[in-house]
Amino acid sequence: MKKAVCLLSGGMDSTTLAYVAREMGYEILALHMNYGQRTEKKERECAVRIAEHLDAADFVEISLDYFTKFGASSLTDSSIEVEPGVLGKAEQPNTYVPFRNANLISIATSYCEARNGDAVFIGVQSGDHTGYPDCTPQFISAMQNVITIGTQTEKDIRLITPFVSMNKTDILREGLRLGVPYEDTWSCYSEDDAACGVCSSCLSRLKAFADIGIKDPIIYQ
């Protein structure tokens, strides 16, 4: 059976993507990263639950708390307040974590190569292209080249990003088709009890549910 490392944050996109990977016939190797984000406790709780739903073959947690030493992001530096979201915001948001996805993909590739896996799935999507350069198609293409050059496997490890040209509404529609339990996912950048409803992640999530005309099952303040 084909094996895929799925970066499982506990959020909507990564959860839906893991369900897509399973439908594509991959055995799931779940990988959860703690990089010092504000809502890590809630994110981990959701990631564990989703891995159980998927009957993942493995669940590995990695600590990347060095991001808190670097700072420069409201997600990893408690002295920086998470800014209210604005959908379609053009400039760099303060929730951008410098070069985070390069770190995540590199670790996921090491895990995949060590387990003789076939693919790494990461849930980058079109809504992140603006303000998050490490979510763009160009970045993903460059990382695929790095993986191909820098690994020793007889088969190429594929970096799979089926959502890279999809928006949150498209992703939600796909997840509903697959029966994704969105009540067990978390998107809020700032709170882990009741979602704030005003950060950019909450706003994009709420818009997706509103676009489809159903109620988001998680609790908001």
Beta strand %: 5-15%
Mean pLDDT: 96
Distance between the termini: 43 Å
CATH fold-level name: Rossmann fold
Structural class: alpha/beta
> Can you identify the CATH class?
Alpha Beta
User: If classified by CATH, what would the architecture be?
Assistant: 3-Layer(aba) Sandwich
List the domain count as a whole number.
1
Task: Report the biggest beta sheet as strand number plus sense, adding barrel if it closes.
Answer: 5 strands, parallel
Number of helices: 7
Give the tally of β-strands.
5
CATH H-level superfamily title: HUPs
**Sequence stretches where pLDDT stays below 50 over 5 or more residues:** none
Strand order of the largest sheet: 3-2-1-4-5
Tell me what you see in this structure.
This protein is α/β, with parallel strands linked by helices and about 220 residues long. It has a single domain, classed as Rossmann fold (3-Layer(aba) Sandwich), CATH 3.40.50.620. About 40% of the residues lie in helices and about 10% in strands. The protein has seven helices and five strands. The protein has a five-stranded parallel β-sheet, sandwiched between helices. Helix 1 crosses helix 6 (about 170-180) and helix 6 packs across helix 7. The chain is globular.
